[in-house]
Amino acid sequence: MTEFLTVDGGTLAYELSGTTGPLLVLAHGMGDSREAYRFLTPALVEAGYRVAALDLRGHGESSVGWAGHTRTDIAGDLISLVEHLGGPAVLVGHSIAGGAATIAAAKAPELVTALVELAPFTRKQSMSLGDLRVAAFRRGLRHLLGMTLLGSTGQWLEYLDVAYPGTKPADHAARLQQITTMLAEPGRMKALQAMGRTTPVDAGEQLANVRCPVLVVQGSADCDWAAPRAEGEAIVADLPTGLGRLEMIDGAGHYPHVQYPAQVTTAILTFLETAGA
């Protein structure tokens, strides 16, 4: 059942599963919705957690017309939801929401016990000519730029084709149709474009201020980086010593939690147990 939280600037939609246990707040990446966690949520609830899956501002059933779509803006939404649900919580953020979760943890350490960042954009990005020699990176970048500049759903779907290399979930075609329908709603593509124009600089500036344990999960075949492992290692290195750890999912693209949900669930649960979160 969808629940709603009104905050400054709009209304956030979320779904709460499980009645007892520590709170996990799941935030998806841009151009998606809380359905991105359709495979993880049941497993996390079964493991004894109370799970809130959020629709980011401008996405899913959340309202449109927000003044900003930066990681800092999204971090404020995460903090508001944790406060509303009676935190503290573990934050799980994918892509842009990984950076947002970093900012939330740094700004409200009393509300965040641990972070899980899935293929996160959490550092200032740089690109070399060598990166462009990696075919998947080059293709993904071209389609991302096409979506951001043209507001093209077709370009976004082309990007998703590159972002899901190899194994795709059984319901992938139906999920792409749901995303297409969502982006046709007034204001949804504008929100996606706005997020596409943001940079992770604000998140990178907060990495050194995080005080809780952090798990970074990267797919070895993620098209968003020419070298996904190096990006994950760099995030861990920018955190305070000893707080971060990296888990690589072999063969996964930019959506490891959708392509390999069992592996990602195991990684998350093992991390939470060993981190004491």
Written description of the protein model:
The chain is of the alpha/beta class. The chain has one domain: Rossmann fold (3-Layer(aba) Sandwich). It has helices at 40-46, 71-84, 96-107, 135-150, 153-163, 172-184, 188-196, 201-204, 228-238, 256-259, 261-275, and strands at 2-7, 10-17, 23-27, 50-55, 89-94, 112-118, 214-219, 244-249. It has an 8-stranded mixed beta sheet, sandwiched between helices. The longest helix has 16 residues, at 135-150. The mean pLDDT is 96.
Number of strands: 8
Mean pLDDT, all residues: 96
Q: How far apart, in Å, are the first and last alpha carbons?
A: 27 Å
Task: Give me the side-by-side strand order of the main sheet.
Answer: 1-2-4-3-5-6-7-8
Q: What share of the residues does DSSP label as strand, in percent?
A: 15-25%
- Overall number of structural domains: 1
